[in-house]
Amino acid sequence: MGTVSYALRPAAEGSSGPFGGDLLSEAPQPSSDAPLNRPQWASKYRTTLLVCDLVCMIVATLSGYALRFGFDSSAATTVAYLTVGGIICAIWLVALQNGGGYDVRHLVSGPEEAKRVLRASAITVGALAIVCYATKTMVARGFVIGVVPLGVALILLARLGVRRWVRARRLHADWVHRVLVVGTTSAARHLLTVIQRDAGAGLHVIGVCTDDTPVGSEVARGIPVVGRVSEAAESAVDVDAAVIAVAANGLGPDGVRELGWQLEGTGRGLVIAPALTEIAGPRVHVSPVAGLPLVWLDQPQLGRVPQLLKRSLDLLAGSLLFLAATPIYLLTMIAIKTTSRGPVFYKQVRLGINGTEFSMIKFRSMYRDAHDRRAQILDQNEQDGGGVLFKIRRDPRVTPVGRFIRMFSIDELPQLVHVLSGRMSLVGPRPLAAEDSTYTGSARRRLLVRPGLTGLWQISGRSELSWDDAVRLDLYYVENWSVGLDLSILARTVLAVLARRGAY
User: Fold this and answer.
1) 213 in a structural domain
2) Would you say residue 138 lies in a domain?
3) Pairing relation of β-strands 203-209 and 223-227?
4) In a domain, 24, yes or no
5) What is the Cα 61 distance to its own chain's centre?
6) Type and span of the H or E element at 363
7) Total domains in the fold of the chain
8) What is the pLDDT along the chain (504 residues), one digit of tens a residue?
9) 20 to 30 A from 453, CA-CA: which of 160, 416, 489, 496?
10) CB-based contact 467:440 (threshold 8 Å)
11) Is the pTM of this model over 0.70?
12) Which domain holds residue 98?
């Protein structure tokens, strides 16, 4: 770990800042023998990603050539198109590099990574078209059409594998950014809570600098206070932090600026965490005004046009799913009717959009007397929702057939009828029982949209999640809805059902 030396210059009168001393007169410079504080794993990650991308491009180039020309083409054609393929690969790699495709800050952020890959691919096609036009070179369109889409698919698939590999390492505190949080204790705790929700993101908080808690005490379990706010830069060296995160309202504008000056030349990153949580990137825009970066927050898209788009998706996809699931309906009804006494369907009053009640149907997965037996096993409830949710991993009231259809979420399929009728949507917060649900405070915003057959709650762990986490995910969906988010959730639902995580 390198140290930081400061070249002191005469200070202007009144230039001392909130970090103590004449900070405006201190020009931080790295000592000549001090390497920048870059994580050692970063170069390994970039190399791995670069090799994977290059292999995918080469495979796509060879496949595109084989699809367009076959294996009986002339040697001259082969050499010419392999040369063109090499040019495409070179342009592609440069576009990815310039577009931040190898930036460790966006590591394991799937949507952001996909966006950068698609943008680089579009630039590659455009650059190739310009080169061919300028040099009057004729390149078979079938070759390009074969190479680029296949290359994009292979690159995204390879990067998905890399992300999972890195996430697995990060769950064991490997390949992480060591983070020092600066700010008030309450803001630091909030930021810590947000960071700990996703260990795979690779942000590992190792300490806090704050002025309202004694040094040496802990703001959370295993997270000590290592210094005052004015000592943030020195404390980062002491605890070997690669990133300093300024929590919301933790420093004034002068304090942030001066902390940035102290970190210059050290290779340590400076992150500003605004008081915006559960807000998706597309709603946040940064616009500088007179040197001040203003963060603009768009309103949630709950207007008529977005609702029309969502309803159209529900009708189209819901109709296709309903028809495709017809054989499953018949087999499930037969299995339920022949193995236990009682009706095939279970009905319960649930809350829909704006709190309107409707009778939701499911395939019956419990014995007929399940409701009467609930009081006998209330003490076995594994949920912490204060009575709102009632889940037991091995519920004795569930029939053998019910356990199977719950495992693969088949019991929810009859709700496609509600999707087609407009009472529910394919994606949205799960409708809870009207008699048990408590919608107070921010939780009432769940009722601004139609309840869904699936949602962020279902693809994030279902019954394994606490009530607070379920509400948090539902609110995130309400605040950040988009057609792209719905499509992403539908795709991930298939994986969640196959994985059977939290299904009981």
Assistant:
1) yes
2) yes
3) parallel
4) no
5) 31
6) strand 357-363
7) 3
8) 333 333 333 333 333 444 444 433 343 444 333 334 556 788 888 899 999 999 999 999 999 888 888 776 777 778 888 888 899 999 999 999 998 888 877 665 677 788 889 999 999 999 988 988 888 888 888 888 889 999 999 999 999 898 888 888 888 878 888 899 998 888 888 888 888 877 777 888 999 999 888 998 888 888 999 999 888 999 999 998 989 999 876 677 778 888 888 888 888 888 888 766 666 666 776 777 666 677 777 766 666 787 888 899 999 999 999 999 999 999 999 999 999 888 999 998 888 888 888 999 999 998 887 777 776 776 666 555 545 566 677 778 889 999 899 888 899 999 999 999 999 999 998 887 776 555 666 667 788 889 999 988 888 776 667 777 777 888 888 888 888 788 888 888 888 787 766 565
9) 160
10) no
11) no
12) 40-170
Task: Give 234: exposed, middle or buried? Use CB within 10 Å, 0-12, 13-18, 19+.
Answer: middle
Whether 47 and 128 share a structural domain: yes
Residue 105 belongs to some domain of the structure: yes
Residue carrying the six token digits 């009081």: 375
Q: Is 416 helix (H, G, I), strand (E, B) or coil?
A: helix
Per-residue tokens: 89: 């690969």
Residue 28 CA to residue 85 CA, distance in Å, equals: 47
